[in-house]
Amino acid sequence: GSTNGIAVVRGAFSGGVLSWGAPNLVISGSDNTVVYDKEWMAADSLSGTLYLTFTKFTSASDEIDFCRNTTDNVGAWTAPIKLSSTTDNGLVQGSRVAVGPTGDVWTTWNAIGNPLTDIYDYMRVRRSTTNGASFGAEATGAQQILSNFGSGAPGFNRGTGFTFPGMAVDRGTGPHRGRVYLTWNESINFYDDNFGSLIAGNAVNEIETNDTPATATAFTMGKNLFGGMSTANDFDYWKFNGTQGQTIICELDSVYTTTLDASFRLFCSDGSTRLAYSESGFGGDNISQSLIVFTLPSTGTYYLRVASTTNDPLKPPGTGGYRIRTTLDTPSAGERARDHRDIFVTTSDNGTAWTTPVRVNGDVGHLDDWLPEVAVAPNGNAYCQWYDWRDASAPICGGASMTYLARSTDGGATWTDGSPVSSAVTNWTTTSANIAPNQGDYTALFANTNAVYSIWSDGRNGDPDAYMAAVNLSFTAVQVSLAATDVTPDRVRITWASSGGAGVVGTVYRRGGSDAWTVLGDVTSDGSGMLSYEDRAVTPGTRYVYRIGIHDPSGEILSGEVTIDVPLALAFGVRSVGANPSPGSVRVACSLPDAGTATLELIDVAGRRVDQQTLTGPGAPEVELAQGRSLAPGVYLVRLTHAGRSATTRVAVIR
Question: What are the residue boundaries of the Peptidase C-terminal archaeal/bacterial domain, all occurrences included (predicted)?
């Protein structure tokens, strides 16, 4: 069509079935004059009023607007109110709206500082105490944010980065009732670093043919690189040696023809794992915007690549010359972030005075963290989630993510280091997607009395899927938690840990999709409090949901649900690993998809091989490493190598 807009559809449950009503149009306009984007909605549980914020783009500018509906989406929505200031016209995006415990309406959005005079971004905030009929003056919830705008996280397939806010309000009855939480990701300050001199002696010209990592043109950081796309299918690879913890700054600052739109990428030492992607846009000398700021996760050789691309259906990929300027970041005073992206939270009880931002993520300071969300449970505990890259295997340079969740029990003053919500690592380079962005522009997080509900983009099935996990909050002190899962095409094995020691009895339940729960059988905990059940009545390629009900004098107490995808065939990797605290050994279950031998190693933190075993595939062997050796407490690496591939995971031995 020739128009675009925003509509809201109301859903209702009847007999356990969700049905949707007719769309109710909020706003629309001609594609030739306006585009509506980044809509966000909240509902007031007290009044039923719906609140909506969005970005309105025109050919000349953009702004953040607000609408409301007091009729449960039956009647018309109000005319839009402009929330963002005239000063920020053309510089705003990513708005949010939330409702406080007394019906006050909170809104926030990202505002980019004036590109000519200001290096910082800001999170603007406005509050309504009139149920959205009017808003108070604009405040700034987060000051002086350094946005890594040039590129997204490893494997992100849109050639830019962004810094949008997440927001939540404490609606509970605890001491922080009414407190507002803001979260975002930000970078070290790369604006105060200088590129090398433009004298001729500091230039490096590409040496053709350099169209593969193996033939890449070598350079050192601080040099100026000059190359060109001779055809639309040309690749230019450059290589440099880097040290773990160094933050590189590489700016493709000049495209010498109006026909070239440059795709600018950073690759891992393997030459294939995508760590950063920035796109210059069509243009001429000194007006391109391709920038990579990235903290190196390990010491080794890295690769830059320039290629011709296009995001304009009316313009084919073109040719032309380019220049790349390079340097290393020197840490400076006042930086909140430790690397190219960390997660932060600030809070306020009134919307005008905001706390000093607190870093949430507890990983080491050379890995990516981005797209955070925040939620507050009715008991006042706050939760923050984000994409985290600490679980990626060493050979792919931090190029795979999991979704992590952290908790604050003191109103946002301190946070736990975070732990994974997702149950599988996603390698975004090998995750196929026919649309950008593959990781989304945001994730989602919601909390109620029962659980914290996390939603994210996940590539474990080969392409991005929306996954959800519920973190149970309705637990008691003496019950059960998930300890391990082990899945092959012909069986599922689940182990729960009980704090009740030996002799705890539980009933295992299973369902498929939206089917009813069926009883599989009872299990009893062993001497270490572990309850294990093996389900062999499974169909390859099917998804099952499991739970266990603990027999208690007060009645059956159900655990959280565990979702298992049974694979169609064995996939190479380590399926599960766990320490056996009694003899001090390590149990490992792995998968070998084809014939041939594999090597399984146990390595300590100093890099010493503690044990090694040779395995033969195909199959799903389970072995015990360091049997009878009484391992010292600490963190160990388990590495499986087969047919030129390796998989690595960590295990902690606690005595």
Answer: 234-308
Q: Is residue 446 part of a domain?
A: yes
The rounded distance, in Å, linking the Cα atoms of 123 and 138 is 10
Can you tell me the distance from the alpha carbon of 128 to that of 169, in angstroms, rounded to the nearest whole number?
A: 14
Whether 575 and 637 map to the same domain: the answer is: yes
d(CA 428, CA 407) in angstroms, rounded, equals 27
Nearest-CA neighbor of 501 among 525, 519, 521?
A: 525
Q: What's the number of domains the chain is made of?
A: 4
Q: Are 647 and 640 in contact (CB under 8 A)?
A: yes
CA distance readout (Å), 145 to 149, 344, 357: 11, 10, 10
Nearest alpha-carbon partner for 557 in 476, 619, 611: 476
Kindly state whether residue 145 falls inside one of the protein's structural domains.
Answer: yes
Whether residue 72 contacts residue 53, with contact meaning beta carbons closer than 8 Å, is answered with no
The answer on 168 and 74 residing in a single domain is yes
- With respect to residue 6, please indicate whether it lies within any of the assigned structural domains: no
Among 517, 514, 472, 469, which residue's Cα sits nearest to residue 15? 514
Domain harbouring 541, CATH code: 2.60.40.10
Q: What is the pTM of this model?
A: 0.75
Contact indicator for 311, 354 with CB cutoff of 8 Å: no
Is 2 a domain residue? no
Tell me the CATH number at 231. 2.60.120.380
Judgement on whether residues 219 and 267 belong to the same structural domain of the protein: yes
Where do the DSSP E strands lie in 256-368?
A: 262-267, 274-279, 290-295, 300-308, 320-328, 342-348, 358-359
- Asked if 166 and 182 touch (Cβ cutoff 8 Å), the reply is yes
268 within 8 A of 399, measured Cβ to Cβ: yes
Q: 344: which strand partners?
A: 184, 359
Of 26, 41, 31, the residue nearest 2 (C-alpha): 31
**290-295 vs 274-279, strand pairing mode:** unpaired
Cα Rg, the chain, nearest whole Å: 27
Place of tokens 């607000």: 66
Give the mean pLDDT per block of 10 residues along the chain (655 residues).
95 92 96 97 94 96 98 94 97 98 97 92 98 97 96 96 97 95 98 94 96 98 96 97 97 88 95 95 61 97 96 86 96 94 98 97 94 96 96 90 94 91 92 92 94 95 94 63 84 87 91 83 91 94 90 75 84 76 74 87 85 87 84 85 84 73
> For residue 238, which of 203, 270, 205, 263 has the smallest C-alpha distance?
205
Q: CB-based burial of residue 173 (10 Å sphere; 0-12 exposed, 13-18 middle, 19+ buried)?
A: exposed
The helix/strand count (H/E) of the chain reads as 0, 48
Say which residue the tokens 């430790």 belong to. Answer: 338
CA angle 445, 344, 337 (to 5 degrees): 140
Sign (positive/negative) of CA torsion 320, 325, 326, 332? Answer: negative
CA 528 to CA 103: how far, in whole Å?
50
CA distance 359 to 336: 8
Residue 500 three-state SS: coil
Taking the C-alpha atoms of residue 514 and residue 134, their distance in angstroms, rounded to an integer, is 44
Note whether 481 and 559 are within 8 A (CB).
yes
